[in-house]
Amino acid sequence: MSQSDGIVGAIPARYGSTRLPGKPLLELAGKPMVQHVVERVSRVPEIDRVVVLTDDERIFRAVESFGGEAEMTPADCASGTDRIAYAAEAWSARAVINVQGDEPLIDPQAVSRLAHRLTTDPECEMVTLAAPLPADRLPDPNAVKVVHSRDGRALYFSRAPIPHARHEGEFDPLLHIGIYGYRRDVLLRLAKLDPTPLERAESLEQLRALEHGISIHVLRLDHMSTGGVDTAEDLAEMKRALREQRLSSDIQHPATTPTDP
Fold this sequence. Notes:
By secondary structure, this protein is of the alpha/beta class. It has a single domain (about 5-235), classed as Spore Coat Polysaccharide Biosynthesis Protein SpsA, Chain A (Alpha-Beta Complex). Helix content is about 30%, strand content about 20%. The chain contains 8 helices and 11 strands. It has helices at about 35-40, 55-65, 80-90, 110-120, 185-190, 195-200, 205-210, 230-250, and strands at about 5-15, 25-30, 30, 50-55, 70, 95-100, 125-130, 145-150, 155-160, 175-185, 215-220. Strands 1, 4, 5, 6, 7, 8, 9, 10 and 11 form a 9-stranded mixed sheet that branches. It has a two-stranded antiparallel sheet with strand order 2-3. Helix 3 (about 80-90) packs across helix 5 (about 185-190). The model is unreliable at about 255-260 (pLDDT under 50).
């Protein structure tokens, strides 16, 4: 591709997860988790290159073994954004989409929407996704909420229930889905900025962008993403979802057996 004009799908993948060590290499439906992510992001027509960014040789070798592309990045990168920005210094791509390596059922159409906005809206610096949030998850601090302006720009992200529903029915809570698209220059600028007070208070890196005046466009989906894999329970649920998806595919596209003429 001509990387000066292209979009890179960047997949940060660390080995040292506290709750699930070696998470990107855990097997799901006969493949390492990161392979599912690579294959799905590769189906996005607007993305010209898909690369896994890792600090671990085991992940690097696994990606190469299934025909993917990987780059080594320093172990001391503090976040996925920092890992991508480190690699992007050497890229000349126009934009980058950050897809987490623990999202094996990421929807290529959702990623395509991010890529389309980046390529068609000259004012778009950053873009992310949101979906309707079930009421029972509103108090959950692990479900990050977002509110946006009338033109779709993020006003605030929080682990707290926002907005406060003093009057019911005025606004449906939105779950933030942590996939980001950036113009390359914005990504590199963001990674060089110091953490900000709101970012530290909420432990939400995207607030650094807002506090420094970087606008984040929010694209709304009709339904929740399947989410990432953070715990053993998440892993079991993902295995079940992949089994169901495979069974559904087999029903829709059954294998045929040749018959005698």
